[in-house]
Write a structure and sequence with these properties.
By secondary structure, this protein is α/β, with parallel strands linked by helices. The chain has nine helices and 13 strands. Helix 1 (about 10-20) crosses helix 6 (about 185-205), helix 3 (about 70-90) runs parallel beside helix 4 (about 125-140) and helix 7 packs across helix 9. The structure holds NADP nicotinamide-adenine-dinucleotide phosphate. NADP nicotinamide-adenine-dinucleotide phosphate binds next to helix 1 and strand 4.
């Protein structure tokens, strides 16, 4: 089975490639810039034409949440229009598409974990463009699955866990917001879940199509809690550590407003595809350990 993955250099695409490498029945073709530039109209159709995939996973996105406030048109182009173009191009060859989306489609004003049918209300441009992307995909290809995730980290690329480890090399004290709650998600676990979904389709090709799912790490944390945990894991691996102090969001102004509750309820995915996301601490511990072993905390 051939799976086309977009955003080849991103956390999720790299995790998908790694997790699929041991599955002989899966051929993953990961495309990214410069060969696939979603800012260009027609790029999706030509990628589908070239690769003729059985399934598409759209993992590419404009993910710079604050910068998106300054570049709403570019963010909309990549997160909404191009996602729709990929869905349409996939539909033209009868292929289903998994569109990866975000907790930032919600405003965070409830205290409960968000379910798939909870009302959406993005607070910023990034969330609004990703929500529009969901709609474009739904409209362009009935054989879609929208999978929303949250707070993604991995051994790869830029993410909060790597940023904290690097900051602790430079500073003795770090201040981190303690009033935003979420579900930290290892991109490797997310990739595993998406691969299980794809594998399920060989037996049950209609399962979950036309639906929306949440898939995020099990358990809840604040960014402060994540930073403290990362420091405790760094200590175990003899990496530099820093003291972490909690602050409030109001003390750390950012261009984009973030939801104070980003907790996603992943039970619908679990029931449909028989895959439970590991506890976030377990997965984060493994990622910090891997970074320590590889000595690869800095750089790509
Ligand atoms: N990261 C999170 O915390 C988070 C949370 C919720 C949902 N998500 C969603 O999860 C998915 C995967 O995220 P991730 O963490 O893997 O993101 P990531 O590491 O930022 O990767 C995104 C990829 O998209 C690519 N991209 C950006 N603009 C592009 C363009 N014009 N043409 C082609 N590719 C382009 C980037 O390419 P370059 O490498 O060339 O820049 C990058 O490789 C995305 O849909 C994201 O919205 C992420």
């Amino acid at each position: 089975m051939k799976v086309l993955v977009t955003g080849a250099n991103g956390q999720l695409a790299r995790s998908l490639v790694e997790r699929a490498s041991s599955r002989r029945h899966l051929e993953l073709v990961a495309l990214g810039r410069p060969s696939l530039d979603l800012a260009q109209k027609g790029s999706a159709a030509s990628a589908i034409e070239r690769t003729q995939p059985d399934i598409v996973i759209n993992a590419a996105a404009y993910t710079a949440v604050d910068q998106a406030e300054h570049e709403p048109q570019l963010a909309f182009r990549i997160n909404a229009e191009a996602a729709g173009e990929f869905a349409a191009a996939a539909a033209s060859i009868g292929a289903p598409i998994i569109q990866v989306s975000t907790d930032y489609v919600f405003d965070g004003r409830t205290r409960e974990p968000y379910r798939e049918d909870s009302p959406t209300h993005p607070l910023g441009v990034y969330g609004a463009t990703k929500l529009a992307g969901e709609d474009h995909v739904r409209a362009a290809n009935p054989r879609h699955a929208i999978v929303r995730t949250a707070w993604v980290y991995s051994p790869f690329s830029k993410n909060f866990v790597r940023t904290i480890i690097e900051a602790a090399r430079a500073r003795d004290v770090l201040t981190v917001v303690d009033d935003q709650l979420g579900s930290p998600t290892s991109a490797l676990d997310l990739a595993e879940g998406l691969i299980r979904m794809v594998e399920t389709w060989t037996e049950s090709p209609q399962l979950g199509l036309g639906e929306t799912f949440h898939l995020a790490g099990s358990g809840v944390a604040s960014w402060f809690g994540v930073a403290e945990f990362v420091m405790s894991e760094c200590h175990k691996h003899c990496l530099d550590t820093a003291k972490v102090l909690p602050i409030r969001t109001a003390d750390w102004p950012t261009k984009a407003v973030r939801p104070s509750n980003s907790i996603l309820d992943s039970r619908k995915f679990e029931a449909a595809f028989g895959y439970t996301m590991p506890a976030w601490r377990e997965s984060m511990s493994a990622v910090v350990g891997r970074l320590a072993d590889e000595g690869a905390v800095l750089g790509g």
